[in-house]
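Standup notes
- DV: blocked on the single-chain target, sequence here:
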Amino acid sequence: MFESLQDRLGSILNGLTGRGALSEADVSAALREVRRALLEADVALEVVRSFTDRVRAKAVGAEVLKSIKPGQMVVKIVHDELVEMLGATGVSIDLNAPAPVVIMMVGLQGSGKTTTSGKIAHRLNTREKKKVLMASLDTRRPAAQEQLRQLGVQAGIDTLPVIAGQSPTDIAARAVQAAKLGGHDVVILDTAGRTHIDEPLMIEMAEIKRRSNPHEILLVADALTGQDAVNLARNFDERVGITGLVLTRMDGDGRGGAALSMRAVTGKPIKLIGVGEKMSELDEFHPRRVADRILGMGDIVSLVEKAAENIDAEKAAAMAAKMKSGKFDLNDLADQLSQMQKMGGMGGIMGMMPGMSGMKDKMAAAGLDDRMFKRQMAIISSMTKAERANPDLLKHSRKKRIAAGSGTDASDINKLLKMHRQMADMMKAMGGKKGGGMMKQMMGGLAGKMGLGGMGGMPDLSSLDPKQLEALQKQAEASGLGKGMPGGMGGLPGLGGGKLPGLGGGFPGLPGLPKKK
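- DV (later): unblocked, structure below
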C-alpha cells in the first residue's frame, strides 16, 4: 500500500542523514519534496499543509540544526508527526457496555461492509470468545442478506433470520431484541449503502441509530478511494457520528492517502484494516508500526506476532531439532516455503525488517521473489513421496516428468536441488552450533552465494522476547532510519535460538515465535 510513498520519503530523508550539518535552506528544500510526495500519495491538501507546518516548526530550531546528527533528528521529527497524524496509539473496538453491544457498520456500496462485518464477527468470536449475532439491514441490494447468512455459516456465526417485507429500522430493532433473548454478547448491524452520499441514506442511518442505540458506529471505507474517502468520512461523521474507521483493501497497490488523511480530518481512530480476502485477514491498526514501515524502519513486533499466529510451535520445534541433526529433505523445504507464504511471502516479511525496505528490488533482480517460491512449491508438489524424501533419485527421466507436471523446465528443477543441497550442507556443517548463530552463519553463506552481500551489523535477536523486541523498536525510532543496518541479506535477524523455537529454520534468519498459550 505505502511502497511508492516509502521509496520517495526514504530517498528524501536519506539525503538529509548523509550530511554532516544542515542549514535552514536544506530543511526547507527537503520539506518541499516531502510535501510533493504526500500530495502524490493522495493525502488531502489540508492534511499535508498541517503536517509540513508542524515538521518545519520543529525542524528549523537551533536544537536540530546544531545537534550532533541533525539529519537523524529531522527523520525522528517526521516519524513522530506521522505517528501523530495516524493517531498516536492504536484503538480497538470498545466492548465495555452492557450486553448486547451493538456495532453499526456504515459506508458506501462496494466498500466491503458485509465482508468486513463477517470478519469482525469472526475476530470477536475467535479472539475475544464473544457470542455474536449478525443482521443484514440491506433490503435493496439483491442477495445482500443471503451473502451475510453465507458468511455466518462459513465463520460459524449466528445470523438473524430474514423476514420478507421488513424495513431496515424494524430489522435493527428485532436484531437487538433477538440478541438479548439469545444471550449474545455483540450484535453487528450491516446497513445498506449507496453509490454516493444522498439525503435518504443519511435519514435511514439516523433512524437506525435511534432505534438500535449502537455503542460503536464504524465507517467502512476502501483504502484505494483516495481523497474522496476524506469527504465520505467527514459527511458520515457530521450526520451520524462515527466512532471509528475500518479501511479495506490495505493489501492493494493504492498510494495510501486515505489512511493518512481520514484520521487527521475526522479525529476518529482507524481501528481495523482489511489485508486480504480471508475471514482471518483483518488486523488491528497500529499507527506507530505503520509510520515505522513508511519510513523504512521495519516492524519486528508485527513480524513476531504474525509468526506466532501462523506457525505451529510444536511442529517448528520438531523441525529445528531435525535440522540441527543435519537432516533436511524436500518435504522440509516445502514446509518452509509454505510458512513464508502464510506470513505474507518474501515481500511481506522484508517489509517488516528494519532497514530492509530497499532490498526488494535487489532480491527481484537476483530472482528471489514470491513467484520463484511458487514455482518451487509446484515442482515439489509434482514429485512422488519417495522423491521428496530422497532427492538423489531425481535423474533425467524423473526431472522430465516433474517439469511437465509443474509447468517448469529442467533448469528450474536443478536450481531448486542446488539450493536444497547448499542449505542441507550448511545445516550439516553447523549441526553442533546453537540455533541463532547457526541461522546467522547460514544466512551469510546463502547471501554470499547469491551475490547479495554478507553478514554483519545485525544484532543476534535469538534470545529476545516480544517485550524486548518492542524496546528494540523504540531504540530504532530514536536513531532515525536505523543506519546501522547492513545493506545485504545479512540484515535478516536470526531468532532461531534461545527459548524461541526456530521457524522450522529452512529459511534462516526468519524469526522464531513464542509458544502458543
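- Follow-up: The longest helix spans residues 410-429.
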